[in-house]
Amino acid sequence: MTMPSHELHELWLVRHGETAWSMNGQHTSVTDLELTANGEAVAEGLAAPLSRVDFAQVLTSPRKRARRTAELAGFASAEPDEDLAEWAYGDYEGMTTPEIQESVPRWSVWTHDSPGGESAAEVAARLDRVVQRARAVDGRTLVFAHGHSLRVLAARWLGLEVAGGRMFDLDTATISVLGDDRGTPVVRRWNVSAQQ
Question: Which is the catalytic residue, given 9, 16, 27, 148?
């Protein structure tokens, strides 16, 4: 009697290390910032917990801050994937939410379009492709990306609308794990620092 095979589908998410703009709450998409010294040190701390896990594929946003985090975490050969880039904020690039709200009260990336930026539907379409890539392999997929793109990715994995990502607070240089429980997409771990 043959036992049915049970494929493993897990999606491991790592937000890049700290940058000067992430420290200040500035929206950062296309601006290609380096990690701060502290960001590099904390990213190095990701190597130990991640080295204990076997990954079928490792992907990274093409932005420097994500690629450098991948390198410091022991994954210098991570495959760049433009679909993992941060939500494009358009005219709001480099601004903080309070600055934007001076002209657009109650503005939030989750509920308002950004002039010259991506719509929620555009972000969903590309992160849905990442979900498909992760589900196409038997094993774990590790991705290095950004605060908003990873929160949207989690929402899409769980079958939620993009705005559902607002419920997932995500710090820099943290590890989160999505999986399945008897066919239902679940959150296994969220926003865990390497020191925890």
Answer: 16
Task: Evaluate whether residue 4 is within a structural domain.
Answer: no
Residue 18 DSSP SS3: coil
Distances from the Cα of 29 to the Cα of 72, 81, 168, angstroms = 21, 14, 19
Please count the CA atoms within 13 angstroms of the CA of 97 that sit on its side-chain side.
9
**CATH for 185:** 3.40.50.1240
The total number of structural domains in the chain stands at 1
Q: What is the pTM of this model?
A: 0.94
Residue 142 structural domain = 9-193
Residue 160: pLDDT over 50: yes
How many angstroms separate the CA atoms of 33 and 192, rounded? Answer: 23
Annotated active-site residue in 18, 71, 86, 93: 86
Q: What radius of gyration, in Å, describes the C-alpha atoms of the chain?
A: 17
Active site residue 86: yes
In a domain, 117, yes or no: yes
pLDDT at 2 over 90: no
